[in-house]
Structure formats: structure tokens, C-alpha cells
Design goal:
- With 279 residues, the protein is an alpha+beta fold.
- The protein contains six helices and 13 strands.
- It is elongated and about 70 Å long.
Amino acid sequence: VRTASDGQVEAALLSVPGESEPLEVRTGAVVNAAGPYAGVVDALLRGGGGEGGGGRELPLQNEVHAKAVLRDDLSAVPGDAPMVVWTDPVTLPWSEEEAEALLEIGGFEASLAGSLPGGFHLRPYPGKPHSLLMLWEAIHADVAVPREPPEEAELRGSLFAELTLRALSRAVPALGGYLGEDGSMTANVSVDGGYYSKAPDNLPLIGPAAGGPRGAYMCAGLSGYGIMAANAAGELLAKHVTGAPLPEAYAAGFLPERWESEEYRRGVESGAVGKGFQI
């Protein structure tokens, strides 16, 4: 970003593959909506093109989240069934030999032999045959993600699908039909995923970029609600950029500058400040 002498954004400089010089886009405003890379872009904006940037690093965190889609050839779950969420802790249905083998491996594998957090869920998708969307965040909870994450999230792939299927078979026993006698998964399943970007208070960051030049804004940290909250987040951001009146009820609570306050940070850590809901 290049700024004028008064600290106002006047251009964005974009690196173009194969070009030695950056592409200059003249603008009075730039928006950091970089998802899992929002923290990295925020650090660049705080430099302000050398024009008085500063402030504290935003405590944005990235988490790996995955989903598995199973083709329900056995019609184990009715196509018109509602979303099913299991919130209680669960012990997976291992044989005695399998549990002993997991304990011998140690680490993540050993944890699978004991009680695991709930939160796994499924939702049918229509079709012939219909499909089941399956999720269980606990399977990637131990995966550390650097501040600048890899383009492709580190997923446990078929293992994630099998573990989620085993857990869901506790809630829907008919899903056990996709597990062979040797414990292997026989279902037709595809897995993909990516990152949830979030702040420690589970509230989005929408508004002027704290510590950045005038004209720099942020819309990030939607904590898994990106699609659901996109319209409202975009509308609020547009009000900031255009100078329109802001909603008094909630706009201030989403400002990135709240993390400049040491009192706010301590309040979040101690639990004195309420947190948004995390899915």
C-alpha cells in the first residue's frame, strides 16, 4: 500500500507473477479480507507504506476444519432427516486388539482409544442416492497452524472420514454398515477442508485497520460463519468505508481496534469479556 504525505491510502501495489514491477491500482481505500492470511496482510498494512503504521499485532488464529461427504448407498439415514449433532463425549467402537495397537503407537493415535469430545454431526444432501455431510472438529484440534498457513490445510483425509463415521455410528447405528468386519471403511467418501480464522473472543473484525493508514479496513475473523454472516459483514464494512451511519447496537464491538486495549485482552483471557459462539 502506498500512502500520501498525510497518511491516507492512495494506491495498492500488487505483485504480478512474471512481472518485475508491481501493478499499481489507484484507490483511497483497501480492505483486508484475506481469510486465513488476514494476520499477515494486517502486518503489511500496519507498515502503512512507511507512513506511521504501528499498533499491536492482532491475535488472529487459524484452525483446520474438514468435512467428509459420504454417498449413502445403504440409505442408512433418511434423505429428509434433520441435521444430527452429538454433543456428549464418545468412545469409538474399537476391538480390544485395535485399542491396544493405538495405545502402543502413542500421540494422537493413542488418544483415539479413550474418551473423545463430542460435537460430530451430519446432514443429508438430496440426490439419488443422497449424500451425507459429516464433520467432527476434534479430529484436527491438535493440528498447529502457523500464522502464515500453507495454501493446502493439513488434513487427516481418509482417517478423518473413518473416525467421523465410527463416531456417527454411535448416534446412527445403521452407519456401521459402512465399516467392514476388519474395521476398514467401505463407504464412498470424499474429504476436503481448509481454515477457520478467528480471534480469541470469537467475534469478527470489521472496520478500520488498527495501526494502519487511513483508508485501510478489515473484514476477517468470522470464525466459521463466513457464508452465513457475509451479507451483514459486507454491509457493515461498506458503512465504514463510505462514512454512512453505523449500527449503534453492535458496530463498536467488532472494531479491530479493541485488541489495542490491554484491558480488553486481559478481560478475554480471564473470561470477564463475553465471547461469541464457536461452531
